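Q: I have 103 residues here and want to know how they pack in 3D. Can you give me a structure?
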Amino acid sequence: MNLQPLRDRILVKPIDRVKSSIVAVVMSENPNIGEIVAIGPGKRDKKGRVVPLVVKPGDRIRFGDTTQNHLSFPEWRDENGEKFLLMKEADVCWVMDDELSVA
């Protein structure tokens, strides 16, 4: 896939479940954990300088609760039918530790 998000946007591949004693996703909740696939160059500050993003491709993240009506992220599917979400870096709640395993 050759896709480049703009500004402070990130492209995320949702992950259905995570096994962890720290993070638990309720099965009735829409997936709100994913892996960053691509990031934009960053947001411009008031002086016009580009501020790079803190997150990077490969990071596993938890993002805003998608069960709320005000948080609906644009969805995109690739040629294989895989689902991706486009969001701003500000929608990321935290970056997950590498020790967490994905089911």
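Q: Anything worth noting?
A: Residues 9-97 form a domain with the 10 Kd Chaperonin, Protein Cpn10; Chain O fold (CATH 2.30.33.40). The chain has one domain: 9-97.
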